[in-house]
Design brief:
There is one protein chain. This protein is of the alpha+beta class and about 950 residues long. Helices cover about 40% and strands about 20% of the residues. It has 33 helices and 28 strands. The strands form six sheets. Strands 3-4-10-5-9-8 form a six-stranded mixed β-sheet, sandwiched between helices. Strand 8 and strand 9 form a beta hairpin. Helix 4 runs parallel beside helix 9, helix 26 packs across helix 29 and helix 26 crosses helix 32. The two termini are about 45 Å apart.
Length: about 950
């Protein structure tokens, strides 16, 4: 993967990623903006690579274990194995015990053990309070060296079902989910390590044996193929002792030779298509072979992709979006992995658009690029954005740890950043034209057309039908297993008793950021935090109102208005405004929700003054460009059509319709419908703006490397020139709790999964019980693997990839919801199990549940405000809900005083399965009638016009 090069900055000699002597600087100002990530690297005798990075800005530590194995190291016929193994490694190890890592994560207040698999590596990571570092090192060593004996046939069978559910959720039940499979199979020759997808095939997963698991572990999960990174606030000498204590005696594996680079070439262009069960719009994807990670041409390909596809100046945008109006946007990216690379261009066209015309427009855009080329100014603009992205990637200790590991594994040196940056800086406009001619112009490619069912006439001319394996889900055909069986095995010998969990270190003090508040004469309320960990500033203006101030017959006005605000100003065309923002390496966006319009920005601290001047123009002097308005309307309609194909989007929209009823404006999607959007005029936006965009209903939140006086002073123009209008924002009318539970079903024929969304009205975020209810919910469904819902539906039954419950609230009302995506043929069984868990939760809650919940909720405060985003969220909570600035501390004290009886009362009060909405989105033909057994009467089919046919 090339996760790093795409965002590494044009940071002119400002980055040092080692303990080497720094380059001399002649300017005090340059020295102030300098940012470095020091590291220390050492290697154990068994080959384990260890990287330390110290960051004392927050009392947390990020620990990541990365194995140099991904799908590219699998065998043909055992695809998906690296990803399956990622799942297995979380389940149990000899000394942690069954579910031990997840249980420990909950107790220590960790972010939750997680992992990811790519073609070339698998990583396992978590951020924890610093007093739990020894525990994490002990746990990671146990996973690496004392794991394999705990894997049994039942464990393997269950996890196969979980991974299958993940594939159904991410691929089979998703619009365009099979595109990557078709692309990959066509681009790479049979047997190439990249010729199958990371998640693999269901057939291969089912055929995996216990011996396969052991062989894979013994070959790849050995210290000499693993890198351990620890980043955060810790003592290096002590951590080194712990690493040696717990990892030293794990045996080194056989030498693992490096794989040779295997870039590919295509002898001919391949055109393929398939009809997508969930797609509502046609999509064309073009893929060319490119280069492996860190190849000199990868850098220019990144710039080329950015220039061709993104922004008003982009040739592809100009031709496909503005001129020919075939789509609302184009995606293009270079994806360079360890062994090979690929360059992909993807266009989701408007309804009924022929993809041959899309391809023709792409060729026109390429011709325009060949004629006009790229300027030095454009190169600088793109690099400026890369710089800001780079610093954003370093805003957490986990991000820093990931970056160091990536360089170590794929470049052989955590300090490779200096060479990487040098390569980025060296890209010229000549390089960009050269890679275009080398890898795109007149080159063979793979073209994949994905079209809605029954619309094969839209595919690219000359395409042949691709083989796409659609899973048939049949009742009773899934593997069965008994998760209660305890593995019996002889424990791996050790020089000390590893079954004893290490003690906590010194308990960290929770650092609550110092907040400043001020109300300006115009009515703008300012909330800020000074933070100089990275030379960035992030901010937003939150304007009350949103959809609440709209006409019910023209829902979508505030959403369109928010989008229009960044489409030029009185004195800047849309292209000029975009260019001004990008030249500063900044991002400015605007969005709308049910109750707010939000204008957000992120930039380098040195450019903040210029960025806020652009925001002034955006707020005070909208352009009202009619051409942009027409494009936005068409784009919004296209997005709504795409959402109609997404089962999760369908579930969300239908749930709110049922919950609020037709007379409550909150029953609507704030983007509107295709009908309401078509009815909206530019004058409607102007009238909304004139009546409702006012400093009197605006809060400003800012976090970053800027002093309080400078932050306040930056608002002078808005404070004096923004017209102060009184705005009457309606009070949200809370939904009524159902008198009796009822089941609703939305039919998506042939769905591979059913989306479950159950819930009822609950408490507002301002209610005294709101946070306590979240504590109560932790063991129900809020605590991920520490929750009953996950343990029973995923770990116990293998019904789902993920399930959870949550309380969400606004100023005056809130919701309690349970959501999941489950295998189609267990829709009723999963629904009944969720109902039973909720029904029995209060009665079964015990002292251990409370202690686990308290441990997590209290200890997790240590990492509550680590990132700039989390600090900004804190300010939003304070301003929206009038929370005290030390609300985190106050919550901590309230949790400590909770009793089991307190939790039981909260559960009885706010979790009542007999007064809930049960919404299921899935295949009605096979699942609808079974749901009578839930005991809530005949399910109501919400889209009866969808014929249930064989």
């Amino acid at each position: 993967m090339r996760k790093l090069q795409s965002f590494l900055a044009a940071v002119t000699v400002l980055l040092v990623f080692s303990c080497k002597e720094k380059t001399e600087k002649t300017s005090e100002e340059i020295a102030k903006t300098e940012f470095k990530v020091d590291f220390e690297k050492f290697t154990l005798d068994n080959g384990l690579q260890v990287i330390f990075h110290i960051d004392r800005s927050d009392p947390v530590v990020a620990v990541a274990l990365t194995s140099h194995v991904g799908s590219a190291r699998e065998k043909v016929g055992r695809t998906g194995f690296a990803h399956l193994f990622e799942h297995l490694l979380f389940l149990e190890s000899e000394n942690l015990g069954k579910g031990g890592l997840d249980k420990m994560s909950a107790r220590i207040g960790g972010s939750g053990a997680n992992g990811s698999t790519s073609r070339d590596r698998t990583n396992y990571y978590q951020t924890v309070p610093k007093d739990a570092l020894e525990k994490m090192i002990w746990a990671e060593a146990d996973k690496l060296g004392f794991f394999i004996n705990t894997v049994t046939e039942p464990v393997l069978a269950k996890e196969k079902e979980v991974v299958k559910n993940e594939k159904r959720q991410r691929v089979d039940n998703n619009p365009y989910g099979h595109v990557n499979y078709v692309q990959t199979k066509a681009l790479y020759p049979e047997g190439h390590p990249y010729s199958w997808t990371v998640i693999g095939s269901l057939e291969d997963l089912q055929n995996a044996t216990l011996q396969d698991v052991k062989d894979f572990y013994n070959k790849w999960y050995v210290p000499n193929n693993v890198t351990l990174t620890i980043a955060g606030d810790f003592d290096k000498s002590q951590a080194k002792e712990w690493v040696k204590k717990y990892f030293d005696e794990i045996k080194k594996g056989d030498d693992i030779p490096a794989l040779e680079k295997q870039p590919v070439t295509l002898a001919e262009t391949k055109k393929l298509y398939y009809e997508d069960n969930f797609a509502r719009l046609p999509q064309l994807s073009l893929t060319w072979p490119s280069v492996p990670e860190f190849h000199k041409d990868a850098y220019a390909l990144d710039v080329l992709s950015s220039y061709l596809a993104y922004g008003k100046k982009a040739p592809l945008y100009k031709i496909l979006v503005e001129d020919k109006k075939l789509t609302d946007g184009v995606r293009m990216y270079n994806y360079s992995s360890e062994l090979a690379g690929e360059l992909t261009l993807s266009v989701t066209a408007f309804d009924t658009t022929e993809l041959t015309s899309v391809n023709s427009a792409i060729q026109d855009a390429f011709a325009l690029f060949e004629k006009e080329g790229i300027s030095d100014a454009d190169i600088r603009r793109i690099k400026a954005k890369q710089e800001t992205s780079f610093y954003n990637s370093l805003s957490s200790v986990l991000g820093k740890g990931f970056q160091l590991a990536q360089y170590e594994i794929f470049a052989g040196d955590p300090g490779y950043v200096t060479e990487d940056v040098k390569n980025i800086l060296a890209v010229t406009k000549e390089d960009v034209m050269r890679v275009y001619n080398t890898y795109i112009k007149n080159k063979n490619l793979v073209a994949v057309s994905a079209v809605p069912k029954g619309q094969a006439s839209l595919v690219l001319d000359g395409s042949t039908k691709a083989e796409v394996v659609e899973e048939k889900i049949v009742d009773g055909k899934e593997s069965t297993f008994d998760p209660s069986i305890v593995a019996t095995y002889e424990k791996t010998p050790s020089s000390f008793d590893r079954s004893v969990e290490p003690p906590y270190g010194e308990s960290p003090d929770v650092i609550v950021p110092e907040v400043y508040k001020k109300e300006l004469s115009s009515g703008i309320k300012v909330f800020g935090i000074e933070n100089n960990e990275v030379p960035l500033v992030t901010f937003n203006f939150r304007i009350n109102g949103g959809m609440l101030l709209e006409d019910k017959n023209k829902i979508g006005v505030s959403n369109l208005l928010a989008s229009m605000l960044t489409k030029g100003t009185k004195n800047k065309t849309p292209e000029e405004l975009e260019n001004a923002i990008q030249t500063l390496g900044a991002s400015i966006s605007a969005s709308a929700s049910d109750q707010y319009i939000t204008i957000s920005g992120n930039c380098l601290a040195k450019n903040y003054t210029k960025v806020i001047e652009l925001v002034n123009e955006i707020i005070l002097e909208p352009r009202w460009d009619s051409k942009e308005f027409d494009l936005l309307k068409q784009s919004t309609i296209s997005q709504l059509q795409r959402a109609q194909a997404n089962p999760n989007s369908i579930a969300r929209d239908q749930f709110y319709k049922v919950l609020y009823g037709n007379n409550n404006i909150l029953s609507n999607n704030n983007a509107g419908t295709t009908t309401t959007v078509k009815a909206i005029t530019l004058q409607d936006l102007k009238e909304y703006y004139s009546a409702n965009i006012s400093p009197k209903v605006t809060s400003f939140h800012i976090v970053g490397d800027i002093t309080t006086p400078n932050a306040i002073a930056s608002l002078k123009t808005l404070n004096t020139k923004w017209e102060q209008k009184d705005v009457n924002v309606p009070t949200v009318i809370a939904a009524k709790t159902p008198e009796n539970a009822k089941v609703y079903f939305y039919n998506v024929p042939n769905a591979k999964q059913s989306v479950l969304l159950f819930g009822a009205p609950a408490i507002a975020a301002t209610d005294k019980d709101f946070y306590l209810a979240q504590v109560m919910n932790y063991r129900l469904g809020g605590g991920s693997f520490a929750s009953q819902l996950t343990q029973e539906l995923r770990e116990g039954k293998g019904y789902t990839y993920g399930v959870g419950s949550s309380f969400s609230g606004g100023k005056t009302s809130g919701l309690f919801t349970v959501s999941s995506g489950v295998r189609t043929n267990v829709t009723y069984e999963a629904s009944q199990l969720v109902k039973d868990i909720m029904s029995n939760y209060s009665e079964g809650y015990n002292q251990n549940d409370l202690e686990v919940s308290k441990g997590y909720m209290v200890k997790s405060n240590a990492r509550a405000f680590e990132t700039m985003g989390s600090k900004l969220n804190m300010l939003e909570n304070i301003s929206m809900y009038n929370y005290p600035v030390d609300y985190a501390k106050q919550r901590e004290n309230s949790v400590k005083n909770m009793s089991v009886e307190d939790v039981k009362k909260l559960a009885d009060k706010y979790v009542n399965p007999d007064k809930m909405i049960y919404l299921i989105v899935g295949d009605a033909k096979t699942q609808l009638n079974k749901l009578n057994k839930l005991g809530y009467g005949e399910p109501e089919l919400l889209n009866p016009d969808e014929v249930l046919k064989d």
